[in-house]
Fold this sequence. Notes:
The structure holds two protein chains of two kinds.
Chain A: E1 2-5, H1 12-20, H2 26-32, E2 47-50, H3 58-67, E3 87-93, E4 100-114, E5 122-125, E6 130-135, E7 143-160, E8 163-167, E9 171-179, E10 191-192, E11 196-200
Parallel strand pairs in A: 7-9, 9-10, 9-11
Antiparallel strand pairs in A: 1-2, 3-7, 3-8, 4-5, 4-6, 4-7
Chain B: E1 3-5, E2 7-8, E3 13-14, E4 16-18, E5 24-25, E6 27-30, E7 39-46, H1 52-58, E8 60-62, E9 72-79, E10 96-100, E11 108-109, E12 123-128, E13 131-136, E14 140-142, E15 144-146, H2 148-157, H3 186-196, E16 200-207, E17 212-218, H4 220-224
Parallel strand pairs in B: 5-8, 7-9, 10-13
Antiparallel strand pairs in B: 1-15, 2-3, 4-14, 6-7, 8-12, 9-10, 10-11, 12-13, 16-17
Amino acid sequence: MAKYKVKTNQNIFDVAIMLYGSIEGLFDLLISNDWLTMRTELKLGMELEYHDFYKTNEGIVSVIERRGYLAANGERHVYHKSTDQPVVFVFAIADNEADSISFAVSGTGTMIVDWGDNSPLEEVALTSDVRLEHWFDNKVEKRRVKVHGDFQLGMFDAEGIPGTIYTMRPVEVNEFRCHKNKYPLDGLLLFENLTTITYIED
Amino acid sequence: MREDIEVRQSTCDVVLGSTRKYAVYPFQWVENQDGEQDCIYGEILVPSYIPGETLRREGLCVAIPYTPEYKKFKVRIRTGESESYLDNQTDGSYWFTAKVGLYGGEAADAYASQLMLVSEGAVFVRLTDGYAMLYDADDLDFHIAKANTQNGKMLLACVPTNNYRYPVTGVGLVRWTNSNIEYTNLTEILQREFVADGVTVMNASYDYNTKDLYLDLDTTFVDSE
């Protein structure tokens, strides 16, 4: 058995290409390393065993070695993310080019945010003052940020949300801070116990 | 002309498109004095020439705008301009309670404010057992498009070893970003990669101001295949 040391930012498909010349080599990797699964996140320096006499496409392996190529595409989380908590807000991001989103809340309960990119769900325990900021890790044609959970908000400041807020179910929000924006506010009709709407002219 | 699954160049995502065409009928919320307090009511208007049996068998598509009301809802189907409605053969009324199975779950009462979780465009309404079952109207599948330009762009963008199907091909244009390309082997690599793809590079020019690469390609060979 030969051993291969994982390089920076490599996933198991990259290693299969490097060692076997095709992702079909993945099967040999999985057989040779019984602890390895499709979900294993590879780290720099991890050692993988493989059969060095077995190559799916020898021509590709030799070209990779000769030209000094390194396959390193990193890990991506592109699968459906699920939670048993109901959706409360959907933020329809209007600007495709927007590379970040931020908003501030205070309240009680737990918020689970699906940022609409390849990042995992973010769970936020609400306190007196929480500012959430996220940089999107991919580009999409249409982005929807979904906020799940069971929570009550004392304050909701939507300054950094570059799009429309849609509310899916009634939610307690005592104060909503609205900055200069051009998006509809229909979603506010499902806010309960709303006492203050503050319009801030930047 | 070659055809392939379309990939959006700006996001590198495959393009999904609806595989069927459908008519979208008008929808409006209506008053129902005799209705239940915790329900709101809607009406779909379809032309009178469409037989009721066709609607029951094939369903219909309707666009319902975002409605900030967390209430169950019922719909009736009005056939033509007159006060004529499709009857619910289960309970003898005109109303069909809307049901939906979100995220693959069991069918449950649909709430008006949550409709955008089903579809942001048209909703397909299927009449089953006295209920109006709601689904996204679009059946999505990979979109197939003419692919000569797309293949060329992918070949330019792809860095060798990043493409799991053809791991040693690709011009990897990003490697020449901000370089003086007249003194690099880009020309040779361009020729080699495109010839391997069955396309001859007739002429190439680079605009240093806009950072655009213009290629004049001869695709006669691949078009004739």
